[in-house]
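**Archive record**
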Amino acid sequence: MRQLDPHILLSTLWLFILLNIIFRDIHQFVLASHLEMLLTGYYNGMEITEELMLLGGVLVQVPIAMVLFSLLLPRRIGRPVTLLAAMITMGTLLSSAPTDLDDTFHLVIELAALAAILWTAWTWTDQERAAAQAGNQHL
């Protein structure tokens, strides 16, 4: 497999997770039971309130922001932010059990991508500093 810059790899993995989350949510709309629950204002027995919708918006903003932050933040800041964001996202994904086989499938894929993000961030060497130092030695 080709070696990618960690910034690009992390951004791509976050985007991959987001696409899986979005598709899983859209995929549920073909189920009559899903639509019926949404129309009642309750989902899996939990009342859907404005506060809950705000919380959901904030939690999904974490992986959305990480698509951009992974590209822009230097390793020194990006590494701990990535580790924290991955833990928050993992907690969000695991906070409700899958209700059917396709939810389980998507959850496994999302968790595998999060494991790749954690591994990439954990093993992220300071190539930027090494490259800068190597460039200074040639001067």
Summary: The longest helix spans residues 6-28.
